[in-house]
Each structure stands twice: as C-alpha cells, then as structure tokens.
Amino acid sequence: MSIARWNQMNDALKARSAQADVDVLFLGDSITEMWDKGAWDSHFGKYRAANFGIGGDHTGNVLWRLKNDGMDKLRPKAVVLLIGVNNFGLCGERPEQVAQGVKAVVAQLRQLYPDTKILLNGILPFKQSAQDPARADVKAVNREIAKLDDGSHVFFRDYGARFLQPNGDIAKETMPDFLHLTPQAYNVWAEALAPDIEKLVR
Fold first, then answer.
1. Rounded to an integer, what distance in angstroms lies between the CA atom of residue 120 and that of residue 127?
2. What is the largest CA-CA distance in the chain?
3. β-strand 154-157 against 49-53: which pairing, if any?
4. Of 101, 103, 113, 201, which one's alpha carbon is 20 to 30 angstroms from that of 91?
5. What is the rounded CA–CA span in Å between residue 55 and residue 173?
6. pLDDT at residue 1 greater than cutoff 80
7. Confidence of residue 202 (pLDDT cuts 50, 70, 90)
8. Is residue 75 exposed (0-12), middle (13-18) or buried (19+ Cβ within 10 Å)?
9. How do residues 90-144 score in pLDDT, each as one tens digit?
10. pTM of the model
C-alpha cells in the first residue's frame, strides 16, 4: 500500500473514531479491510460495527494507530482482532517476534478499553501447501497467543481449519492468492465469528 493511501484511510478512521458510536470494532490488515459487503451486512448489520482494517498493516502499525488516532474516544463492547500475517512477509519476523507484536496490541487494547471483550483471531493459514514452512510459523504464533485467552476479557479463536481442504492445502476458490479471502470464504469466517460475537456483546 502507498503511504498516500494509508494516510487517506487512516484519516477516515480518525474521523470515524470521533463519532464514538461503535459497538463491534474490527481491527486488522487487508483481510479485515476487504470484508465482503454481503457477508458483513448479513452477519454484522444488526450491530454498530466498524471496519478498522488497513491493508499492509502489521502489529506495529496497529499499535501506533491505537496510541495516536483518537481511538480512545471509542467504547466498543467487542473488538475482533486479526493481525500478524504481514509481520512475516513485510517485516521478515520470526514467530516469537510476531507473537510479541500481537501481545503488545492486545495489551494496548486492554489498557484502552478495560471493559471491552477482545475476540482474538488466530492468524489464518496462508500459502497453498500444508507442507509450506509458513504454515508451521503460523501454528507457532497461534500456540503462543492462545495463552492470552483469560476467559473474561480476551477470547482466542483459531478458525483457520475452516479454510483448508481435507489434506490441509488451500484451494484457489477460498484464497485466490493463498492469502486473501473470496466472498465465499468471508461467509465462512462470518458464520464462525457470529455466534462468538453475539456472546461477547450481550
């Protein structure tokens, strides 16, 4: 993503923060930003949900946004967080570094929104083959960040298996580039998220 586009999106989200009318806050990178409208409207339309995903973001970007973008004005009932995959490809980080970045984001969310429930998504599998080393890296991060689940404010969910074929590979019909989701895959994710979000916003 160009710096100009990132700044434009960030400015729009600052303005959205100032409205302070968000019950369910989706936070993350391009996988969050690119939510299919049909899946979003049908599953989350009943909430005051806001999409704060920005393509290309890694944990450091999200941490900066939480500290500098007026997001303290928000008081969401729930935050749906998916972040970390770009730490591999764009930052060249190892699993332990990625996990530390996710932990820092969760810690900042807890500080910013002490009464908010955080639905922490495990990083989704990427790369076509189940044998690709990137798959093991994702599993290593998810094992570590799963420990953040405290059963009261942070709830970890790994929905990744829903996007895999029986042999563990990823189909182009699910992720055309073996990273980003198709509309069909967004429906799969939405159906997985919906009951968990419903519990958290009660």
1. 22
2. 46
3. unpaired
4. 113
5. 21
6. no
7. confident
8. middle
9. 999 999 999 999 999 999 999 999 999 999 999 999 999 999 999 999 999 999 9
10. 0.96
**How remote is the C-alpha of 62 from its chain's centroid?**
10
Q: In the structure, how many helices (H) and strands (E) does the chain have?
A: 8, 5
177 catalytic? Reply is yes
Q: How many domains does the chain have?
A: 1
**Tell me, what amino acid is at 189?**
W
For strand 49-53 and strand 24-28, is the pairing parallel, antiparallel, or unpaired?
parallel
Q: If you count them, how many residues does the chain have?
A: 202
Question: Tell me: the pLDDT tens digits for 68-98?
Answer: 888 999 999 999 999 999 999 999 999 999 9
From 11, 115, 180, 196, the catalytic residue: 180
How many angstroms separate the CA atoms of 182 and 192, rounded?
15
41 is catalytic: no
Domain that holds residue 195: 3-201
* Residue among 42, 115, 177, 196 flagged as catalytic: 177
Residue 180 appears among annotated catalytic residues:
yes
The dihedral built from the CA positions of residue 193, 120, 105 and 178, taken in this order, carries a sign that is: negative
For residue 76, give the DSSP letter: -
CATH of the domain at 158: 3.40.50.1110
Cα Rg of the chain (Å, integer): 16
User: Could you give the percent of the chain with pLDDT greater than 70?
Assistant: 100
Closest CA to 44 of 178, 175, 195: 195
